[in-house]
Every structure is written in C-alpha cells, then in structure tokens.
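ASSEMBLY PREDICTION REQUEST
Request ID: AP-0331
Submitted by: J.K., bench scientist
Number of chains: two
Total residues: 524
Priority: normal
Notes: Please return the full assembly, not individual chains.
Input sequences:
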Amino acid sequence: MENELPFTIDQFYKFLAENKLMAGKCTNCGKIHLPPRPLCDNCFSREFTWVEIAGKGKLLTYTVIYIAPEQFQDMTPYAVGIVELRNGLKLPGIINTPLPEQLHIGMELCIDFIACSHAQPWPKWPRYCFKPI
Amino acid sequence: MKGKPLVSIVTAGLSKFGKNEGLYTRELFAEAVKEAFDRCPRLDPKADIKAMFVGHMGEAYEHQGHTGATTADWAGMLNIPATRTEAACASSGAALRSGIYAVLSGLADVVLVGGVEKMTHRSTAEVTEYLAMASDYPFEQWNGVTFPGLYALMARAHMHKYGTTENQLAAVAVKNHHHGTLNPMAHMQKEISLETVLNSRKVASPLKLFDCSLITDGASCLIITKPELAKHFTDKPVHIIGTGQASDTIGLYERKSLTSLLAAKIAAKTAYEMALVKPEEIDVAEVHDCFTIAEIIAYEDIALCPVGEGGILVESGETRLGGKIPVNTSGGLKAKGHPVGATGTAQAYEIFLQLTEQAGKRQVNNAQVGLTHNVGGSGATAAVHIYRSHD
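STATUS: Completed
Returned structure:
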C-alpha cells in the first residue's frame, strides 16, 4: 500500500513528519534515490519501492552561517553541513550544536526530526536537522 | 594549428559596473548596447542584427520578467526575436552559447548577446534570498544553506583535502582588487591587503566578507557573426574557437566531488578540444570568482594547474598581471562586480579588449588566446569559451 504513494519530494516530507527518513528504490535497476524522484535517472523506470534509511552518518563538510536570509536570521550563527549516511546517500542540513566551530569533518551525526507549524501557504514541509552523536 | 573560428565577435559593450542608482535593468542594458554600437560604425543595428539573447537571473529584483522583449525594446531593437536565457550566474554565458547556436544554424547571421542585472536597490538579506534561488530549494534553501554557504562547504572540503589555506583564499581577493584598480569600469577600484580580507566579518565560515564578490548593477553585450562576415564590420574581430557548456545536479550535496565542479571540467574539456588549444597556451583568462574559493577551483577545473594546487598557484603570483597566466585582469567578479546575469558576457568583453589590445593599463602583452569560465549556481551550469585574436 505504501508503494502506491507517489515518489515525490512532497511525500518524502510527509514521511519525515512521521519521523521516517524514506528513499525510493528503483525496482528495475536497484538504484536508491534520496530524495525520491518519480523517474529513475539511471534506467528511466517509474517503478519504485519505499525503503527506510538509517539516519546516521558522517560529516563530509560544513560551514557556520553568519549572514542569512530573513527567515533564518534569528538562528545565526548556525552550522550547516553535508552528511553522508551509512549507505553512501547524502543530505544537507542544519547541525544542531551549541559549539558550531568545534565541528570537524568525519564526525558522526544522526538525524533529528523537528515538528513545526507553518504560517505560510506553501510549503507545508517539516524540518529535519543533524546532531552530534 | 588552432581551431577554426566558430563565430566572430565584431564589437562589445559594457555599462559602468557599480551602484547605478535610479537606473532600471532595461536602461542599464541600453548603455552597454550603445557602447557596442559606437565601437562599430560599420554596423547598421536595425538592418544587420537578426536575433537577441539576453541573460538575466532574477525577476524578483524589479518585479520584471520577460527580459528578452524588454531589453530589445529599450535597445531600439524592436521586432527581432529576443529571448531571455536563464542559468543563474551563467545566464549570459548561456546567452553567448545560444547566440553561437543561432549563427551556426544559419537562421541569424548577426546576433546580439548579452546580460544584465540590477541588484543594489535591494537589502543584503533580500539579495541573499534571491541568489539562493540558484540553488536547490527543497533541501538546501529549506534547510538554511545560503549561497555563500554552498561555496563555504566547498572551501572547507578543499582545505581539508588539499591543505588550502585562508591566506590563499585571501590572495585571490587581493590580486583581483589590484586588477580592479586598473579598470575604470570596475565597481571597486582600491587595493586591499591580506589582513583586510582575513579580518573582515564572517559570512559563512571559512568565507568572510572580502572572500565574496560584490552586489553590483551592470550590463554587458557582444555582437557575434559568421567569421566570413566579420570583416564587413571590423578589421579586428575576435574569434571564438571553442565552446563548452554542461550541467550537473542542482543540489551540491548530490555531487561525487565537493572540491571541483564537474560541469566546468566537462565544459572546459569540450572547449579545449574544439579549439585545439592546450591550457598552457591560454594567455589571459576570466574565471568565475563569485567567491575566492571558486577561482582556486576554477584554476584546477580548466587545468591551469594540477588538481589541489589552485591555492599554490594564486600564491605564486603567476595569475597576477605580469605573471605567466594573468587571471581576471578586469578585477573579476570580486572587484569589477557581479551583476549575475551580466557576468558571462562581461567576461567575454574583457577578453575582447585584451585580444584587440584595448585593455589600457591592464593590457596583457601579446595576448592572442583567451578563455572565459562562467558558472551558474553552485556549479549546476558551466559555460567555457575560448577566443583567439585575428591573424
């Protein structure tokens, strides 16, 4: 039944709201897409199954943001990084830590799901972040 | 034996780069067009020019889209096909590429290509938000990754992998500001020291304010034609002998490498092969230094130095005027300024001046072969062109 849900970014965030990090696995060639996409960029198949991805990985690179657009200004300075999950998939995200300048490449992080309410009409996506283990 | 000309540039124009208060996008573009027309008295614009491609990134700045028609209207070029090209900061690199398609197709013998952006009337927060639109929204922007943040992620990875230093990043800014002092059209025309860069306020670590290019208003254009028609318009055309354009994942996070731009490498390889030119034969290059790290990565992607040695190359002084391969003699995006849609053809404008010996105080001696490297977003688009002077 789950596999009848569309393999879209919107659905990715709907799963995220349920504290699940989900990717689409192409049933034809086996490529795992995180984020999911409705057309496999490897074999052009449109057949996928949902697979849950463990939200743990290592930090590939990071930066501490001091100048941000208005919606993030009250969070500055904050750290963002690119995290390589255990199976080679990657995601960018905010790294929730009180000591952003003490981050280091290669450190272990895990995903944190954040419930949030939205004032704006679009998008209604929840947020996630990473935190040191 | 270098490659045969694909198209020839017969004239070029630039508006003053800087804070052009009160000037609207279409008015800036008309300023660049006027210079191009004035430089080429044998051109009859209304009779000769058959199509226009204009790079422009953001309608948010002025609530104004439909830039092809708008700029054609104010340039006095009504009724010809006029199309906006958009590839973020590579919008006018893409305009040039589109113009080459048009000329080579035979559908339009003389084509006006250019770009424009009006940015300085907006707050830094607004510009930060608009520029971020060049990057992935649902994962990068949504998660607070700013545009400088993306290049900061590359900078940190490059420093970690190759030992590149903050001093080497700063050396790019010092060099390009020096070149900017020699360019009367540049936004910033003052020398800066290494300490100025290192002590400037943090934007996205390790990048500081002086590692970032400028928020600038400006426009640029070129008129290109079939090589066999060039002599009709000028005795000193500049020939484009290689063109490459490529794309990559919109998300930086999806790339295999965080220390080079695959699209730029592919575009450069394509252009070099078409031009029958080797990297060591380039006399002068304009590269996309939207951030200091971007120039260091550009050196490596266009093969001016081995991978990982971009920082060493800038510190050696060889990319400064007087060095073996001067890079960004115009001042680059860093000092000349970066009106994003205008940048690609503004780079070509500088190479046009250099290869026709009109670059004044910043003229590279005996410059015969030039290269431009124009990047969109965090590298999801890149356009590389190779030029040579007329024999």
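REVIEWER COMMENTS: The first helix of chain A runs from residue 9 to 16.
SIGN-OFF: pending second reviewer
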